[in-house]
Amino acid sequence: MNSNTKSVFQKIPNLNKTLSFVIISGTLLFTFSCKEKKDTFQAKGGGGPTIVDVIIVKSDKVSDKVEVNGTIVANEFAELRPEVSGLLTYLNVPEGQTVSKGTVIARINNADLQAQLNRTKVQLELAETTEKRLKQLVAVNGINQADYDLAVNQVNTFKADMAYTQALIDKTIVRAPFTGVIGLRKVSEGSFVTPTNIMATMQQLANLRIDFTIPETYQKYVRKGANVEVLLDQNSGKRESARIIALEPQVNQSTRNITVRAVLNSGSTSPGSFAKVYLNASTNKASILIPTNCIIPEAMGKKAVTVKGGKAVFVDIQTGDRREEVVEVTSGLSVGDTVVVSGVLFARPDAPVKVRSVKSLNVVK
Fold first, then answer.
1. pTM greater than the 0.85 cutoff
2. Mean pLDDT of 12-39
3. Residue ranges of the alpha helices (H) in 140-290?
4. What pLDDT sits at residue 44?
């Protein structure tokens, strides 16, 4: 055995001591760590009751107001378009001013139609002269009745042609359909226009209306002649009054909503503006209301946690109308029940709970 090999074997005892120290230290550290985790878990679990805050369920009489979005619409609205295509030879659009019904707004070039009308007039005059002459002859049996009938038919044909040509000429003239305020001009004189071109718009700003939709479940609360509150200006917060004048007879199959139209009794705004409509779905309805954070949603329904005999009891509930912070409970709870409002997530069925405080539910009536 050489000297190098001998020196290695002499160092083995020291190596064994070092390994023994490392193993013992690791074992003690693992033992202490496990013991610490076990003690911590017991301290957190503890087995004591869950601390909760509760409310006592009461029956409150509240006015159920449904808030929906609405749009202001003009009493009358029209897009001024030409009926025929052609060159715009005359345009009268006083932007932003009131225009009376029947006022000529625009004219399309109708020179060819006017010429055709004049030609038909000349032919009619000749036909009428011929008809008068033949009428005298047929009275003395100078001609056959058939020849006279042919002359009369010719007169009627020319009259019909004139009426048709005049109708075509009328289509080249755009008139104000009602008295109202005309909008901004969209075209210029000398442009070639077609029925797809909008020359301007007209609106009747008196008796503004508001259109809004409501769920079909509230249809029974909406009737013709009833008043609703309307918020026109979000900044002022002032609510105006509007009277319901009509309801859409059919419910929208896609949204299950019904469209309602009301006329503003007060207030002023512009057509197309946004408005909030407040509908009284019921008056002084007795309801059980609980905070929305009390409800535990599940796949097949909803639950709430009540306290009975110092233990947490989970009950199935059904909800109705929902507001910003509270929801109506239609079944599952009774007046006098104790409902958990805080600590809901830590409560377990039939587990002991300790009531820390009893909260009050403030409902804006």
1. no
2. 39
3. 145-171
4. 37
Structure tokens at 48: 């004591």
Please name the amino acid found at residue 251.
V
β-pair type (209-215, 257-264): antiparallel
Paired tokens of 87: 């060159």
**How many angstroms separate the CA atoms of 112 and 87, rounded?**
12
Question: Is the CB of residue 55 less than 8 Å from the CB of residue 290?
Answer: yes
Report how far residue 217's alpha carbon sits from residue 348's, in angstroms, rounded to the nearest whole number.
Answer: 36
C-alpha pair distances (Å), 211 with each of 76, 126, 181, 225, 241: 14, 60, 21, 15, 14
C-alpha to C-alpha distances, 330 to 6, 249, 325, 338, 360, nearest whole angstrom: 92, 30, 17, 16, 20
Angle between helices 111-139 and 145-171 (to 10 degrees): 160
Read off φ and ψ for residue 231, nearest 5 degrees.
-105, 110
- In 3D space, the residue among 180, 198, 191, 128 whose CA is nearest the CA of residue 158 turns out to be 128
**pLDDT tens digit string along 172-210?**
999 999 999 999 999 999 999 999 999 999 999 888 999
For residue 109, the model assigns a pLDDT of 96
User: What whole-number distance in Å separates Cα of residue 365 and Cα of residue 360?
Assistant: 15
For residue 56, list its beta bridge partners: 338
Q: Is the dihedral of CA 340, 342, 345, 347 positive or negative?
A: negative
To the nearest whole number, what is the mean pLDDT of the chain? Answer: 83
Q: Are 114 and 170 in contact (CB under 8 A)?
A: no
Residue 216, CA distances (Å) to 128, 233, 234, 256, 330 in order: 67, 27, 27, 6, 19
